[in-house]
Design brief:
alpha/beta; globular
Amino acid sequence: MPDALATVRPAVPNYGIDADRVGGRDSVVAAAKRRWEGRYAVDEFGGDPHLQDFLFAPVVGRIPVHLEGAEHLPREGGALLVANRGPMFTEPFVLSGAVQRAVGRRLRLVGLPNPPLLGVFAHKLGGVGRRAGDAAAVLRAGHLAAAPLAMQISSTSAGEAPRPVIAATLGFPLLPVAVRPGGPGGVPLRPWAVTVGAPLLPPDDTEPGDPLAAAELAEQVRAEIAAMLHGARGE
């Protein structure tokens, strides 16, 4: 079976117009000239598509990843991906590269560290604030976003799900994702393995922000991720 990541090729440089889909890269000279002349766009969330295509996309796109469940990734529209996270915050970048290569879309990373100055740069590269409302706004704008489970010492353990973010984004597809190193003992000696589960949705009559529905979905997505991680360890 062919690798699900060998599918989407970037288009020509989009000059910062398309905030959702990854474009091609300018040359170093052309990119520097564009930055100097200010001919690039910044979206309403602080994202800088031109900078993402030039700096971020090539880096995460080269992370070796084997992806399962690519058919669950939406080709358009908003959705929230929830994935496990280890102590080094590596998993969101691995997932970003997998999504980029599979469906050609940018992945907004919820809850990136936001120190002075560096926080602005993180937003330019697609980071989103920790507030649940920020994640909801990103999904309403039609983007993909990823929120991590609570950090665990072991990168193959499932921590607590981000219930406030799930509550704020009720009604959008919620995809459980397991991200694990390919080597023994959690060492990334081989390609990372990313498994995307089927989307979870609350009952049809659920009200926006329903805390009970959010709690149930939070536990469900954590359990799904734990099962995928446990199944991988048992292989």
